Records
---
Amino acid sequence: MNPEFFIPIPVLLSQLTLGLVNGAFYAMLSLGLAVIFGLLNVINFAHGALYMLGAVLAWAGMNYFGVGYWTMLLVSPLIVGIIGIIIERLLLHWIYELDHIYGLLLTLGITLVIEGIMRSAYGVSGLPYAAPSELRGATDLGFMFLPNYRAWVLVASITVCLATWFFIEKTKVGSYLRAGTENPKIVESFGVNVPVMITLTYGFGVALAAFAGVLAAPMMQVSPLMGQNLIIIIFAVVVIGGMGSIMGAIVTGLALGVLEGLTKVIYPQASSTVVFLIMAIILLVRPAGLFGRDK
Amino acid sequence: MSSNLLSVEGLTKEFNGFCAVDNVNLKVEKGSIHALIGPNGAGKSTLFNLLTKFLDPSSGKIIFNGQDITREQPSQIAKRGIIRSFQISAVFPNMTVLENVRIALQRKLGTSYHLWKSVSTLNTLNKEAMDILDSVGLAEFSDTITVNLSYGRKRALEIATTLAVNPVLMLLDEPTQGMGHEDIDRVKELIKRVSAGRTILMVEHNMSLVASLADTITVLQRGSILAEGSYSEVAKDPQVIEAYMGNAHVEVLGEH
Amino acid sequence: MSAFEKELGNSSKNISKILKSKSVSWSLVVLTSLLLAPFIGVYPVLILKILCFALFACSFNLLIGFTGLLSFGHAAFFGGAGYIFGYFMKSWGIPAEIGIILGVGFGAILGYVIGSLAIKRQGIYFAMITLALAQMVYFIFLQTPFTGGEDGLQGIPRGKLFGFIPLDSDLVTYYFVLGVVLLAFLAIVRIVNSPYGQILRAIKENEPRAVSLGYDTNRFKLIAFVTSASFSALAGSLKALVLGFATLTDVHWTMSGSVILMTLVGGLGTLTGPILGAVLIVMLENKIGEIGFFLAEVTGIQWFETLGQSVPMVTGIIFIICVLSFRQGIVGIFTRVCRPGR
């Protein structure tokens, strides 16, 4: 065999960890999308834009107020969560009775407005944002160098994903949430204020997106358009995994990230389309999605 | 076997480990009115969805007219003459009453894929559609937009539309659900009238309707068949009485 | 039944009657002015651009308005056909009508592929799948060498019609494109009002019922999807012919968003609504800078002067307003006002 066909192991591993990190972003974002859809019946197109907003806020905090990464990791999701609550109360709130299509179109409109504002403020070129000094550099694992920041992102995002899963599947409040997706009337009879629950759920879902945005800021170009293509990949993830299961969303997200990373090594030209290709294959062999409910 | 129009063998449907329909064996005799009763969640609607292939069974067989139809598509099942109604009124709300019936008649014209023909070519069906509407007492409403009809008339239109495809087996899912007394009587008469020469399988909660119409009754509970027989047989069955205990239906059942 | 369907249905109900009465005379007025437009000093290329978008929106409406399917991937057919048309015109020097046929053929095949996959899921998933697959098409066009990457295809020759009528002059092109668009529009009107169109309506209103009456609704939906994709591809090829270039903008999902907006503003499920919507949105995009300056002058708020750079934002605001309070669109509201009580 021609040795040129061998892929250098460090390159492979590096792409795999990068893929895993991307997968963790997919997991966090599709998780939020699924939670929001479960309760609000709205496919939140604005998820990508709010992820971007999280990253831009982190940048702005640093550049205008000198607020560092660690603070912004909490403050940015908080601000975006509040913005989400305002969006829900002001806009989404009116359309729950309508066909799902209108939810998608309304959040598309919100996306265009948010991206438009950011674009007129910052243009389309990337804003540089450095990783916190504690996390610079890389660790030698013996078989590869793992950049510390990547390791941190992986740990942080998977922890957040699992915590969300635990909260929704194992706690009492979570059980209200799950019941609310089936039948809001019953939950109301337990004395739960369903409209408030819906508002908070949306706030939480988009805060999760903003958290992902802050995590992404030092790794990717912070730019007003950074969420534009991502949201469509997230849609594909959601179609592949189905929105019925939280764990399903997490696993699908991670797996697709890894597959994308592998593709970057084996056939880089296909790396931007591989997720969509997998979606097409899944639709052919298992139309309901991997974790979808029967019909 | 020849007198059975529809027979179901070992039909089972599982949802994530929960058996909604569990090993059901059912035979529907040709020309009979067969009622399915049972408490909420007994699996009646799931069974209907399985029979019309709106759901795929986990296991079991569905045999219609001696042919295995278990693997067929919903539209193929309909083409064989098994036509179902739905719990919520199955009409085309923003079409006129006449257009509703015409949609059903249109299939036999064979022009449903003709993109280039004018819709006026469907006018040849108007007379037949009017006759069917007349038979369910809706002739005078033929130009009404369906959404404006009363609930009872929507159900009547639904039966008219079903009749228009000349069904061999009609599956009626709770035909009187949510109706007042007058409407119920009207639907009862209607079912009696259209049952001539046809086979009907229906899910129904109204026991007086079941008592006066059904030749055979099958009682379902938690996905399985609890009892089967004529009304008088079923009403005496101790298991059935127990199953309905504490349920509102017990009084209705007791009336007869 | 959802309120969405109710609203769509009501507006589509009335439009046929309206068309037959007053609108015959209106159509004559519009037609005459279109025929005379180049002679009264209107720039023909702008009208043609609007006509292409109008056809695009009408094709899109065939799905959302008359079948009840929201495709979020129509840019792939519109922009993709433009590339195919441009490539063959440039490199092979074929007659214009062959180029258009190739573009439409591309749209039909791509429509078949995307449609077959998307109809496997319903409702909101349908929209997400079409969006994702169209994004894949976008990336493919971005990477394939023949599309010229970020620059797109520039300087596409108009060639000759039937091999002997040169389309160099804007005037000849104008009447050719006008004729094709009119024919395509009439074809769409006929499809909507055909026996097939009746079944599409039935599917939109109550798909399970249509299935239970023996209609293989997936097949009807797929045919509708391919038809709609083909007409969109026709619009895309014509646009490339008129403007002489094909770029990534036309394949990007924001273009799919634009066509949704045009249809929504004009009125989903109406025949004339998408045309009106296309006129408004294209004009708005062209004139928004001037409108901004005007607003700045009237209100004294400097910020309005930058409105010209904020087309997406304005589009977003219109989307929000439309969804929240204007779901029937202009034509939908017009017909309701004209025929109260329906």
---
Amino acid sequence: MSSPIIEAKNLSKWYGEVVALNNIDIAIPQGVTGLLGPNGAGKSTFIKLALGLFSPSRGYVHVHGAAPRNNRKVLQQIGYCPEVDQFHETMTGYEFVYWLNRQWGMRKKDAIETAESACERVGMKDRMHDLITTYSKGMRQRIKLAQALAPAPLLLFLDEPMAGLDPRGREEIFGLIRQLGDEGLSVIVSSHILHEVEQVTDQVVLIYNGIVLAQGRVSEIRDVLDTHPRTIRIAGPNLRTLAQEIVGNVDVLGLELGDGHVDIRTRTPNETFEQLNQWLAKPGHTGYTLQCTDDDLQSVFDYLVRR
Amino acid sequence: MNESNTHQFHTLGDQPVQGGYLTYVMAAFGQGLLLLIRRPRLLLVSGITLLPVLIPIMIAFFSRDQYASDGTDIFIQLATRLHISVFVPLLSLFFGSMLIAEEIESQTITYLLTRPSPRSAWVLGRFMAYALVATSLLWLSLTLTYVACTTLADLDFAPIHLKLLAWYAGIGILGILTYGTLSMYLGAGTKRPIVYGVLLFFGWEPMARVIPGIVDFLTVMKYLEALFPPAAPRLADMAVQSTLGEYTKLVYSVQATHALLVLAALFCFFMTMTVWVLRSKEFAGTRMAR
């Protein structure tokens, strides 16, 4: 396995008596990774530590093997789309990206070309010469993304990138993030909306109250949680009869009859799934569908924070 | 999103070439200049700075021939008591304190701090933009005031005194540079740079000039005053009368070369301090973060 692009050990950050991150260990591999947690969990603090905007109170965070704070070599490889909706409002979108390109160290010609292509890539070509004050929230979000993408970074931090976007805009950003991942770029997507992250990756780090609850692939995390019962949903006809038959034959903890479906709770999902498949394969048991309803991130997250 | 780009988009590992230190300085200068000249209150400040031009015009309009003052004397009074004593600190405070403070307040500083630019280059470039705008306004006001003083009505026109204009222009830029770095440092290092700046420039400095002793050495104006032309009024030569009595402050003068050295040292000190603050302080998000 290749070395992680971001590695944190015993990382803590506190402001006065407020602990934002508490002794966390994180290893983020190459690719697209979701940084998940509710508001105030410590996601943005972690990102700012990884960007070198903050110094750790204890422990360390390394990006590409080096401490990022005041480290120009690390910053050269990083693109950052912040959560805050703030700009130099007297500029146009193009000017905003152009001048940040110049701050990156690009010469005029490169700065112009990359600003134009970045605006174009995020779908802002037609409006890039308009003042930022005239932009919608979605357009502002795209310009933020454009300035992060423009220097062609190796590692991109997107802090709540879907905030304020309409469904179509979200789909486009999802597509872009997936595309960037396919191109080999490492992307850290922070979000408190789990569904959003599921759209772009199954590699996640779950943060809650300043501690890391879990990290890895969603399915792997879910498998670790053997102590928690999982739910299998069967939809189809004659559910009451079906339920009666299942209770005696399948390893179930509980069973709940719903509208057009029955939910089975079990501690042995693989075996139960197998048993159900065999049972449904019998003659007369047609028209049923099986689905594991709590493999998604929300369920994992709910389990982990014991809500 | 557009899949087909007309421009070549840089792909992984194909980053644009980075320029040298000067590229960063010029980038910060260009961006800073654009932001300064588009500031909504620039017009208001320009108007205030040009107000002294009206004074000689009014004097020329209202005064009788036999009482007409010498134009050069009026110019010296205005340049000393308004341009250098008031507008230099005022322009420095207005533009200089906001150079970095505005980026912090608006949280746009995170964009800049996540760029791989040397902090010193950014500070220097931004400061150059400020110095250009503030000096331009000051010089414009000085020049128009000089023209108004020396060419209107019965006032004395003495082209030979153009040297006087250049003299004050020089003191003006030294003031803009020194007060500017101090203001910039206040903007980077404190939460209320305008309040501290007003207290310092318009509270402490005038007060220190009348307090007995040598506390006036702890003001920037002391060293600017040391560079004034011989005909200029002395700002600190004042008798103070109060309910308790009357005294005349004994003023220790500073040599021009020493004054220049102190101003240069102050400039370098506050410039370095600003860079240090930018490197060490945590600005991301809000001023809450230390």
---
Amino acid sequence: MSSESASTPNWPEWPREGLSRIPYWVYSDAALYAREQERIFAGQSWNYVALEGEIPNAGDWRRTWVGDRSVIVVRDAKNEIHVLENRCAHRGVQFCQTHLGHGTEFMCPYHQWTYNLEGSLVGVPFRRGIQKKGGMPAEFDMKQHGLRKLSVARRHGVIFASFAQDMPDLGDYLTPPILELFDRVFDGRKLKVLGYSRQQTPANWKLMFENIKDPYHASLLHVFLLSFGLNRADAPNRIVIDPTGRHAAGMSWRAEQKRTEDNKEMRSLIEGLKLQGDSMLQPMREYERYTICLMTIWPNMIVQQQSNTLAIRQLVTRGPQAFELAWTFFGYESDDAEMDLRRLRQANLMGPAGFVSIDDSEVLGFTQQGVARAPEAAGVVEMDGHGWAEEADHAITESELRAFYQAYRAIMDI
Amino acid sequence: MDKSWSVSDRLTLRLEVEEFYANYIACLDEERFEQWPEFFTDDCFYQIIPRLNFERGLPMATWRSEGRGYLLDRITAIRKTSVYGPRYMRRIVSAVRLIEQSAEGFDARANYAAFETLPDEFTRVFSVGQSHDAFTRIDGALKLRRRVCVFDSELVPNSLVYPL
């Protein structure tokens, strides 16, 4: 898309009902997507990029994403972590093409411009020409042509990056109620990566965030979850939204596997459903309070603690009509073999083949099919009122969506 | 024991394994999922794992089944609990190789491809990879003790609903 079309948006006005409507043009407009890249992912945001345990040694790097831009997270010899845009300062080549690696420098294959692990340009072949012919002008300043460096924040083994240079402290960015829940899982114990999973869903990235911010659907769509009582509206639930509306968390406790007055509207609850492979779901209590905690951390991170499954879902935007969900499953270094196995077995609920997650990725695709063809229409989000509060003690609410769009509209200026 | 086969034994067994795969994928392509567990032993191990994890020794799989019960739960999910759109899946198995014999049976590898057709869409390549299979014989019939499908595709095209 040209910068002209990005700077001359032609999207309509937001519906006059305000926060209780979501106009469908937000899910398909190309100019809006370009503004999201600029103001959200490349703006004043701490984007999740990697875990420190993925790059334990000096020279280790991991290729990852901020919005739809490729970045490299690298540990240098002084144990500092740098996040560098994966784009050669010479001609724009995305020079790093492997996910994980180790080295002492980065070299672009095209003209072999070379950068150190801090992203500074250290080598330009034929800079002085050959036999005094050609070469760079004398005033060419290597210092002015390094890789673009992002700001970096680290907390308890989790690495965040920002294209903005004047970012607030990560703790202030997350705000106290969200920070407390973040620290519940990332409590300072060393993390152990159990593996990755990547899927592409044919839907706008916001629909994924909205899905996690929507506890209303969990007791209706997810037959597996609700039949086994893993996450159900008739069990105790708690919602926390940060004061800015950007981040949120939903917590719940496991419910009993039976029909009651409170769950009679859950048409798809199958009473007495039993697992044949019963070792899959034998959770062990790991944390104080809540058996499930799902957090959305603006703008690209979902932290999931579902019984013993721990995962980060990183949202990678792939144009207005698709997103990639990059899952990093993890545990703690201190886990024994039995806990490892428990996490691996329970992970059957999650990911592209998840007993629960399939429902979401499929329904998000169906949603995109509907909304992309009707940009003039709008979604109705009136469950639990028209505004939002920072706390709720039930799941029959769409307040997290209203909070999200309040923050979104302020940042996007729409 | 001798881990290799005589030429004639190998050719005979290879035909038998190829026939097994043909029946296996026909069962899945035709969505006769209730019969799918019959291709496995009761204590089978079945998983579908991204190549990145497999090659780095990372244990997390996209789909992990330990024993027949897990396979039955997947059938319950396909038939009753999962919400997903209609689709056709067509599987191809090729380049079947017998690797070696062991006390329990023998190992085989094959390439596989799975094509997916969604409503209103052209058919697409859904998954391409290699199967690492361990066979055993029960009452004369071949059964899978272990089947590990390692897929190359970096991104799963949305959802993996049916087995490979």
---
Amino acid sequence: MEMVVCVKQVPDASEVRVDPATNNLMREGVPSIMNPFDRHAIEAALRLREAVGGRITALSMGPPQAEEVLREAIALGVDEAVLVCDRAFAGSDTLATSYTLALAIRKLGAVDLVLCGQQSIDGETAQVGPELAEHLGFAQCSYVRALGKPAEGALEVERAAEDGYERVRLLLPAVLTVMKELNEPRLPSLKGMLRAKKAELRIWTAADLGADPSRIGQAGSPTRVAGVFAPQRGKKAQLLTGSVVEQVQALVERLQAERVI
Amino acid sequence: MLNYFLTEEQEMIRDLARRLAEEKVAPVARELDEKEEFPHEIMRLCAEADLFGVWIPEEYGGLGGGVLEQVLVVEELSRACAGVATTYAASALGGYPILLFGSEEQKKRYLPDLAAGRRLAAFALTEAGAGSDAGSIRTRAVREGDYYVLNGTKQWITNGGEADLYVVIAVTDPEKGSRGVSAFIVEKGTPGFSFGAKEKKMGIRASTTRELIFADCRVPRENLLGKEGMGFLVAMRTLDRTRPGVGAQAVGIAQGALDAAVRYARERRQFDQPIISFQAIQHKLADMAIQVEAARALVYAVARAIDAGAKEFSKESAMAKVFASDVAMRVTVEAVQILGGNGYSREYPVEKMMRDAKVTQIYEGTNEIQRNIIAQALAKEYAKTE
């Protein structure tokens, strides 16, 4: 089975601070990590390869230093890695990003399965995976929490929906976005890390992909961020006192008064 | 921690071992200790991470490191759980005799499996009546055609019952004393080879310690390690190389206790201030840190000397083991004291560290025996200069 795992380098959220004056994220000196959800996508691909064989390519779009997360993917066991990297991609929103990644996946040739984390921890849109499927014309399933074994060109998965779980059978090729509960990612191996250090990554530019200049980077991104702000902190919290029974009664009365229940 | 200018690869090994220890070992250390449970899952993770192969040459499937690489892994695992570290290290203790004295065929047959962690090894020297006095071994190996027939009982064998390969020291010629013992590779499942009672221990309780029982156990002749009569040499050369590992275990335990004590002293408030602001606590912590760093420096220096090809290192190897284990004992006792009532409670990790530390003064040659080795070497060295 030919698999592609999309990975993204993101700032370590646990280290990010918000500038109290401007409300902007302060990214200086913040270490970069692999988007945590993507580790689960890699683990899913590794387990599928263990079960049915095949090849895994890790794919990332980003600046040259995004190479680090691709090497990490190789250390974990993926077969090869491609970095899509060009100044022309700067300022891409999810539409331009998914367009660009789709071109790279097409360039890789026949692919059966594309795996993505459910979302990135910096952008948090959860759009790139589904958009990728649309560009590629693949079947798709988001928020995958359990995975079957592929057979006869199809794959059964379980996804989390708003009000329960859905069991879905997809015809391959397909794009999946996976949740953390899907699996527990492994640690890299020493031999994998040595291999990762020496591995040659493929680096593809906009020209290599034959990208339409009007669909990539800033030009290809209809999204405009009008402003970023932290919500005002209100001090409306009220403490209910008394016994548990009294507190619950008071809460129910309030909620009924507000027509919440 | 002082910068020891490790190579990039050594740093990689240390960092991965640390990650495994923090993410996978620390969360279950308490449970493994209380249930006295063998850490199968963690050994599987160590295997997956290639940690079993750090000291094994590349031609046998390892990473081509040496004693220092092994020391780095043991230290990191010990910071989280010394029982887990013992289990890991005991496999190298069983594997080193094969690397040092095995024939090409034996090395090819066994080392790749040990490197990959597919099989665990163990080393069997101690008996009920032969502890420090290793010369009084009773287990017999009698040659019968293409086999040696083993009879006897080994005691206190780490990884007993769990390991797949055992290097067993047995008497082949009772007339010759310490020159009449030989080393054999015995595979689990060999008829006549069984396991006795599991020890109930004070510490390192995740590590399994068990009797090995040989009753007319027929071991193929090709499983003799080295030549007949070399058993004592096999044991001594092996232990010379693995003692820095016990030192590393002690350093890891002591570092873990220091980490816990500093963290606690910064958080715990009495008389309206964190207790780390009291000089009584500060000086304790400083003394602990001094000892830990000195122990680490000695362990690393000896490991590096061995890896660089030093010819004689029994004395220094013994020094590293004695010094570091005495440090681990003192530092863990102090850590319990700093944590006070909480230190004595099983809610906090330091009481376990104190129990775990004790064994490092006892096993792989008691500290008293190590001091004998050191003193004998001194007497020999000075006799030469006169």
